[in-house]
Structures are given as C-alpha cells and as structure tokens.
Amino acid sequence: MSGKRILMIVGDFGEDYEMMVPFQALEMVGHDVDTVCPDKEAGETVKTAIHDFRGDQTYMEARGHNFELNATMSEVDPAEYDALVVPGGRAPEYLRTHDEVIDAVQHFFEAEKPVASLCHGPQILAAADVLDGYEMTAYPAVQAEVEAAGCSWVDEVTRDRNLVTGQAWPDHQEWLAEFLDLLGTEIEHGETVAAADD
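Now predict its structure.
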C-alpha cells in the first residue's frame, strides 16, 4: 500500500483522544499525517483536553497532553494532500474563525477529497459552508448548527460521498474503519502463531 498524505487541523484544547488516536492509527498503517494549527509552527505544541461525563448534564474538561505539531499551517498547500482530518473538542469553535482553516476545508470539498470529522469538528465544516446536502453526524449538541448549514442529521457514524463523520471518540473503531476504506487502505491480517511450550 502506498501511503496517503493527510492534513490534520488541530488547536488548543482539542479533544485528546480525537487528536492522538487518529494521528497514531493513520501513521501506523502507513499514511503520512501533517498536524497543523494556525499561528503555530512545526515543533510547537497545542494543549489537549479530555472531556468526560461524570453524571452531570454536560461534559467536564480536564487538561490532557501536549500534542506536537509537525508542520506549519502557513506553509502547507492543501492541494498537496490527499485527505483531511478535523477532530473535535473545544478547538473548533476558534479554529473556524481563521480564514486559512476555512480555505483549506473548502479545498478538500471542492476537490472531493476524503474528509473525516468527529464530535465538534463539524463546526468548522459548517463555518466553511460545505455541508449543504450531506447526510452526517456530529456531537449531538452541534446538531442544530450543522443542520442549519444544510445537512441531514443521523445518529450514527456516517459516510456520505467524501465525508466520514462520528459523534465522539467512542466511535473511533467504526469512524476510522470507514475513513480507511474511503482512503482505499488495505490492511492484511497475518496469522499469529503462539510459541510452543518447552
């Protein structure tokens, strides 16, 4: 399999699992993932957050890890990438105010390249005005926002044309599997042979 070049747009207090897990999983199967954030350079970090439910009506937020960027957003050309990943968390609410983020997202939709977005990530897609006519999902609290952008809402991991969406990190297995399939990734499962007892 020849790996794809994938752009991942992240920001401070993005959801830890939704940045770390896709980055590691996509790299593990041979894709090259460039992680970028507006106004930050390669080698700098963004702070992640861990969102969890503890019996309240909404989630709480705890400090996660430092996630290192390996590319500089102002220097990347979206046309050189095969696919885009837009994680969730709190970062999308401010990332969507950056013109370079909106321009990048619009490029991937105009070129009909694969896009995977999760949780609050579709807030950026809504701001980029690319959701009209799509069937999709997101974090349930974002439903009204993405529907106002023209999408048709469903309550499960969804793939519609070039877009794969999930509601939150518990959807990782299905969401990533759909995205890998969309990318044309083939994974061969070898046989595991246990060592014989002496």
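The first helix runs from residue 16 to 28.
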